[in-house]
Amino acid sequence: xxxxxxxxxxxxxxxxxxxxxxxxxxxxxxxxxxxxxxxxxxxxxxxxxxxxxxxxxxxxxxxxxxxxxxxxxxxxxxxxxxxxxxxxxxxxxxxxxxxxxxxxxxxxxxxxxxxxxxxxxxxxxxxxxxxxxxxxxxxxxxxxxxxxxxxxxxxxxxxxxxxxxxxxxxxxxxxxxxxxxxxxxxxxxxxxxxxxxxxxxxxxxxxxxxxxxxxxxxxxxxxxxxxxxxxxxxxxxxxxxxxxxxxxxxxxxxxxxxxxxxxxxxxxxxxxxxxxxxxxxxxxxxxxxxxxxxxxxxxxxxxxxxxxxxxxxxxxxxxxxxxxxxxxxxxxxxxxxxxxxxxxxxxxxxxxxxxxxxxxxxxxxxxxxxxxxxx
Amino acid sequence: xxxxxxxxxxxxxxxxxxxxxxxxxxxxxxxxxxxxxxxxxxxxxxxxxxxxxxxxxxxxxxxxxxxxxxxxxxxxxxxxxxxxxxxxxxxxxxxxxxxxxxxxxxxxxxxxxxxxxxxxxxxxxxxxxxxxxxxxxxxxxxxxxxxxxxxxxxxxxxxxxxxxxxxxxxxxxxxxxxxxxxxxxxxxxxxxxxxxxxxxxxxxxxxxxxxxxxxxxxxxxxxxxxxxxxxxxxxxxxxxxxxxxxxxxxxxxxxxxxxxxxxxxxxxxxxxxxxxxxxxxxxxxxxxxxxxxxxxxxxxxxxxxxxxxxxxxxxxxxxxxxxxxxxxxxxxxxxxxxxxxxxxxxxxxxxxxxxxxxxxxxxxxxxxxxxxxxx
Amino acid sequence: xxxxxxxxxxxxxxxxxxxxxxxxxxxxxxxxxxxxxxxxxxxxxxxxxxxxxxxxxxxxxxxxxxxxxxxxxxxxxxxxxxxxxxxxxxxxxxxxxxxxxxxxxxxxxxxxxxxxxxxxxxxxxxxxxxxxxxxxxxxxxxxxxxxxxxxxxxxxxxxxxxxxxxxxxxxxxxxxxxxxxxxxxxxxxxxxxxxxxxxxxxxxxxxxxxxxxxxxxxxxxxxxxxxxxxxxxxxxxxxxxxxxxxxxxxxxxxxxxxxxxxxxxxxxxxxxxxxxxxxxxxxxxxxxxxxxxxxxxxxxxxxxxxxxxxxxxxxxxxxxxxxxxxxxxxxxxxxxxxxxxxxxxxxxxxxxxxxxxxxxxxxxxxxxxxxxxxx
Amino acid sequence: xxxxxxxxxxxxxxxxxxxxxxxxxxxxxxxxxxxxxxxxxxxxxxxxxxxxxxxxxxxxxxxxxxxxxxxxxxxxxxxxxxxxxxxxxxxxxxxxxxxxxxxxxxxxxxxxxxxxxxxxxxxxxxxxxxxxxxxxxxxxxxxxxxxxxxxxxxxxxxxxxxxxxxxxxxxxxxxxxxxxxxxxxxxxxxxxxxxxxxxxxxxxxxxxxxxxxxxxxxxxxxxxxxxxxxxxxxxxxxxxxxxxxxxxxxxxxxxxxxxxxxxxxxxxxxxxxxxxxxxxxxxxxxxxxxxxxxxxxxxxxxxxxxxxxxxxxxxxxxxxxxxxxxxxxxxxxxxxxxxxxxxxxxxxxxxxxxxxxxxxxxxxxxxxxxxxxxx
Lengths: 375, 375, 375, 375
Hints:
Four copies of one chain form a homotetramer. Chain A has helices at 29-41, 47-51, 97-104, 110-116, 121-137, 162-171, 179-195, 224-232, 252-255, 325-348, 353-364; strands spanning 2-6, 13-19, 56-60, 62-63, 66-67, 72-77, 141-149, 152-153, 201-208, 238-243, 259-262, 265-268, 276-277, 280-281, 286-292, 303-306, 311-314. By secondary structure, chain A is α+β, with helices and mostly antiparallel strands. Chain A has a single domain, classed as 4-Layer Sandwich (Chorismate synthase, AroC fold), CATH 3.60.150. Chain A has a five-stranded antiparallel beta sheet. Chain A has a four-stranded antiparallel beta sheet with strand order 1-2-6-3, covered by helices on one side. Chain A has a two-stranded antiparallel ribbon with strand order 4-5. In chain A, strand 1 (2-6) and strand 2 (13-19) form a beta hairpin. In chain A, helix 1 crosses helix 5 (121-137), helix 1 (29-41) runs antiparallel to helix 10 and helix 8 packs antiparallel against helix 10 (325-348). Chain A is globular and about 75 Å long. Chain A starts with a strand and ends in an 11-residue tail after the last helix. Chains A and B meet through helix 3, helix 4, helix 8, strand 10 and helix 9 of A and helix 3, helix 4, helix 8, strand 10 and helix 9 of B.
């Protein structure tokens, strides 16, 4: 399975093409709309962005509501914006502007933002939402929540059930499942907006009830750790990714997750590994924590240089958001869904959804040690 | 360019095949030996491991000392060990054992460790050392140092030059360029060894004087962030990767790196971005921080379950190291060298080393804004 | 560089995404329209098909007429057809129908044709035309002509210049540069149409003035032979591909192309190799001959079986063409352009069109043997 | 699944690495030896080559005789030859010599032959033999035979069973299953040897009893036609590849293979498609015909030019074979085995051999049309 994303942020549409997805899976378009809405509605983004729905079409790979095995093309229309007329030669710190010009040399910094802007994540979410649905039908729940925005950090509450957590998150304008912290985050965002400033933060993505033995190590870059690194680090503004427990200062005795038996089934006493050992799922929740830098566009612009005259100038102001951490947490769900759906399909075969479904159910029942006639 | 690693840890040898490396580059075998020695000699590894030299052969792709464009095959002999005879059915927490069995089903946990063991990094270092040499001839310096082991963390000293830092590091048994911290780390390791415990930690890898405009975003997984995520997260025991400044709680005004002019040249006032903006190098140092869990094999073993009888058992003890953080920092240099060499070759063409050399020199001189006859 | 094609034949549009094409290349949209017109206008296709222009949009990767380095998305609208309502369960010999059902199992054979229909070549031609333009600006001419349709085969005329040949071809309704043979082919097609039959045939594609040393062998599947095999054999109806002289019964003395000097330049006395030796271009014309089976849909249908009842039935009739050989010859130009553009970009770097242009010009001047300080 | 081949022809060994092969398959080393023997023993190759056995080792990915899912590394030792000392500057027509120098520029033509020589096929055959075994345990028989050498062409005998054909072939020094033609071929080779000449020819490779529905079209280069084109055209000296019936001058009515029922099972009246429709296997024999040019090295050398002095010279004589068609037919079996094994693994999942085995058996029983609740 492979996902290709194209489209310019001021072009007519963004495109996502998913190759190698199995046939016979029924797509729920409303769920895709819902995830697209979540992506654009996190508090801290520009108002206009939050209100207009993203129009999308599944332009191929689906027949009467079911996937066909052919590539799935998702087209998400861009909003008609003001076309960019003026050549821009002053790079904004934190953006692709300067590096893009050094790479390609075309003398207009607007060009590089067309691709590098986070607009492409709208197509990523549309396709990823389909993959999340796919995993859900295998009883795998992929969900995310915001951990921190700027200086405000949530205390995790281990007593919440997944359903409770998701409900709290969905009631929070910043997708943070702690009501008090959520309020503080909103205030923190409002203050930053007043200062013309921006905020970074962090979020967590979890995949619950994933079958063990997914992933690979035949090629070292098939390890799920590697795939998670590759996909999450491609999300705009992401600077750091962690799998499992972040405090690596504790010794091995405390870090590693002992096995025990409960009602004859194999269990773990903890999940510091974050669900991945040796590059493979071990059956525990896959847990990824992601860190985002503050977005670079600022109301009160930073120092820069005009590349056409080589004189110092202020970076131009471009209408912007204060923080994208809540939106990025939705993108993160899709990143993990992509990695895991890919691993599911490699393990169970790429053709028929129904076969995958029955194979996963079978694998979740456990495996029995069988004798083998070694040479 | 593509690197393939194969070999079983108890097989005759480990193999690295590098495809698509340009012709005409002179290889220094002594430098490869030196990096292999660094990999095996970090304090905290088993004694035997530190002493025996790794024998390696470059079995293809080199003619009278120069690369030829053909795939480069590096063969690193494994030490003759005791062949494993006994079937093992008790998985060790933190290892691939359990997940590997759930994936493949073969009833001997020894099998999965053959691939998943960190032994393969010896071939990775051998090939990576060649790529580091390649970058060095382009005046790019790739170096690493240990930041923390267990509870002991180094304070960074911004006043050290690269040469001073590397010298201090090379004098430290744990590759930490602060003499006092280094001593504390050694003690911390000694204590852990006495307890039969293991330690994780962190290291930093830096690429200095890298040309701007490397990397890509045509495919979103060509972004250097994504490539760094993919390659570093494939290293055994790595749980977290950060590019640039880790404190994302500071606001955008402080995070982003303003431009200014110095003697007519474009400079940055800081490097919080860690040398990468929009997925591309921006000419500043590429800085990656890497977190490793404590290695799983413990002198005082953890709780487990015998999979063949489904009874609770202690995990077996396997001779092991206390910490691999210093060794892993050497592997990290190779990871960054791989990512950057790949980007260099994509930008400058894959065939002739000499052309790459002159193109890089030309690019480092800077770029001038040129007028363009837009339609 | 990588080309991804998606879209269903009865969906809203066909899509082509080209990743990794360099920035700064000026696209001529009229040339793309011209190639799309050639694709649909070969004699032997349904009348309606020949008349309606293909509407296309370059939806990303271009800024004010120039490529930007971002992925290029080409969208070609499908004509509004009658939506398919009836489930079909009788497979047509020669089509994907039966094999598609055995693979995916969805009980409607219409599904499999959506992807497998040759409609996707419209997007392939649109993107390929851009790559052909790119090669033309490097003074490489890629052209094709029809060699045979059914029983009618052209005698090649070695005395024609490229310009004369292309002019003759463009005046032929079947793209055959021999006026008399062209007339016979038209009659042969008319007769087949009357019988409700279909015709296969063959065409040749040539790349003239290509620089030597393109292609690779570091990975064996990078050899240009392998790439040509992969891309041409993906074209619908293609059953055979040949590079260079097809008569392999002649001995080596006659087959291999001797070198000689002409005005101090290296020349070949013949070009039986078809421009490729050892997987690389040798500077002579790259020549590929391609064989197509008759298209499968027939006015007078073949025997089949109803898969839902397991009773023998006639295959359904679907409106169709008599022959696609002329159209396929246009697709073949794009196949060779894709293979060669890819090789150009790997050799000269993927970022800047202008650098590629000057490097190719330099390479065409020849190479001088230089002394080397071997170890 | 992916195969990587490396090694220089005068290096210590040739290497094949196979990634992504399932675990639990029992390897028969004698079968690999047998295929290696067949590769080197075809009549028309140098005497020394035919006698010495190829020593090989499976250096990873196998545990007590069974595959483990880890990459399989096969090492085939090269014979100690005379090391090449003299720089060579006169290119041989038909070889990589000239094109390699134009690509890489290193001033010794010996360099380019190290990779481009057909020696690498020894590693390809070793790994491919394993894949052929894998298919055989799924009841798929992959076999080849020589059709023509130089001017001598065999008449196909449709009345032979597979067993009879293979027996006749194995008794023929040129692997041609027609005794009289075989004798003529031997004489033809002897004559060519006396003249210092070389011969090309053709062979056929067939996969019998392959399950239908293998291959793909989600990516157009996943079509089996494309994969067959890619892999066969990578074999040294191959200039042409055909799938199914080569005479495309017959009309569609005769070309396409009608369905009929026999004892309630779906059958085809012919197999002109060569077992592939729409890029997928249709359950009939996959048939590939392959054309090879005469090998280039000649006892009576061709005209050339000394690149270091730019003077006309005779190409150097290098000890050589007369024809490699019989040997190449063995390589062709491995090419088809690679393509089909890859398709099997993508369809049935990459992890467990036993699951693949039972899934294939199930698929061969046929598929039933099932009702579906379309939206």
